[in-house]
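Following up on my earlier thread - several people asked me to post the actual chain instead of describing it. Fair enough. Here it is, all 236 residues.
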Amino acid sequence: MYILIIAMLYSVASCKKKATEAPPDVGYDYAPVTLGKYVVYDVDSTVYDDFKKDTIYYKYRVKEKLAETITDNEGRAGIKLIRYIKRYNPQVNYDQMAWTIKDVWSYTKTATTLEVVEENVRYTKLSFPVTPDATWNGNAYNNLGNWNYKYLFTGQVNAVNGMVFSNVLCVEQKDDKRKNVIHRQYYIEKYAKNIGMIYREVTDLYSNTVVAGVPVEQRIEKGVIYKLNYVTHGVE
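Reply from S.P.:
Thanks for posting it. Predicted structure:
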């Protein structure tokens, strides 16, 4: 009788313990899906034009907003991602400018991925669960070639644009490590929990004039250096 009572009490205690255990964190909070959520960024872009032999600088502000639910082009539930723009004017403060629509993209989070369609090209931005050793083909759904994305770090304190975030991951999309003497590619993105993407950097440069010991960045003939930095976020 006593053995039966003890067994019953142990069973009840075990059930309570299992019921109160938190589910494992797979990293879904790095990609929020709250409708109306937005993130504002400052963008600086330098374009090296080999045809015009010119360097062009662009500066503007972008707001990315999760606007409404849609069915994506794979037939799955997704979200319309509307991107707004304010073009830099040294005479006018950004707060005095109205937003205008720049792009309409789509944003799909599944149990295992975050996929974003940018300019009709689908990229697999994140892989779930978020683990330090995860790798995946970010171009699995497009024809741009196999790029092996990986997490450079996860769950770290990190500063972006003078602001400190308590839980950040960094995705390395491509880094050719200067193995190519005429082409330098470096692509990364950073995501903060409960915010989403907070930083993006794209370096894609070419130089057919090879000089021994001199990296492509110091003899640029064409290409782009693009940086996107977090400013603020909210829900509207």
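Residues 2-235 form one domain. That should answer part of your original question.
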